[in-house]
Design a protein that fits this description.
Helix content: 25-40%
Largest sheet: 6 strands, mixed
Number of strands: 19
Number of helices: 13
Shape: globular
Distance between the termini: 44 Å
Structural class: alpha/beta
Radius of gyration: 22 Å
Strand content: 15-25%
Amino acid sequence: MLHRRAFIGQGFSAVALGVLAQSARAAFVDGVGTGNGVAPPRRRDHPILAIRPSVSPYIVGGIPFAPTWFGDVFPHNKLPFHQCESCDPPPPVDEHVDVAIVGGGLSGLATAWFLRDAKPVVFDLRERFGGNAMGESWNGAPYSLGSAYFIVPDKGSSLDTLYAELGVYEDARVDKGPLAFEWEHVLTENVCVANCTPEELAAAAAYQARVKYFAFEQYPEIPLPPKNDAWIRELDGGSLHDDIVQHCGSLPVALREAIQAYCYSSFGAGWDQISAAAGWNFIAAEEFGRIVLPGGNAGLASRFWSRLHALETPGQPSRLRSSALVENVRVNSDHVLVRWRDADGQRRTLSAKHVVMANAKHLVERMVDGLATLDPDKANVIPLVQTAAYIVATVLLKKQVDVPYYDSFLLHDASFPMDDVAFERD
């Protein structure tokens, strides 16, 4: 039976605002701090991009910004899956493998590591692996571009063993810092920064009690445990917002907004759009402590990446294939055909016994032929999933701040967006 923390230990996609940790000052080599201040050359597809210090950064409001954009650039006529890539006749099969994995983020890399005996091929659209867990390093300081931490697993669990095997604990720090946020230019953890009424104080206490309840008494495991899942299914039937209002009352405005910001950053949706089971699954897990690596979760992606590269056969094509656009996946009777374009734009076809789709689900429906027949439940749900754009900013600090936080939320004031319309305008 899955322990209540087992799934959250897999929460590789927890996203928060990454602020450079004190422990992350060493140089970074394949996910390991060297401490010598010098990072050697890396392969182009390494999850962490080493950026040369800019001689003349842009200064905005007294803050220096890099003058170059290092993120994805897709011209309007080159957006993936917005054209008819699959209309031309496919080229003949030129490769046979046991396992192909579509998507080279943490999910894809971890899957490849666990299935390494099958020598899987991993495709990723971007030049670098890591997906949401890509990172950069500047002046030897590695930092996350998106997902920044994951939850401490139970001692002796399979995840604890995996992290030890990957050397995670050698460079990690465990953060149990407060939920920090900025309110009218002040960094604070005080949810009553806007002055609380007695009712709001009581609601805040009830909220904290409910967090502790789900963390330590009855944790809503996802995937569902084999037994005693009825209460989780019932919790899953309502929104996190409604559950909080029902059991806690009207929270202080800053706390409401902090929860909303957390939901936007972790789920890409508001607290009124995610289920109470999913919301408490994440929020309660924060009580267990967060593992923070140099480079955020890019440090974990780097560990998988480097170990998978070490298994490659010299002189043979790499099985980690970046800049590889998978156009179409078709299931036949005893194999799966994967049509893709390599880094040179050449169209190719691979045959695999098994294919793992570890990429964004809204792209899956455009890639997998006959998804409505293969998996009607997923095919019906995918078009209904809505996500909200969420800006993650990484700040490299020159000195320690008074509030010992790792991630913070910019709530700005009492006008933080609390619904989709306000969010889009904001």
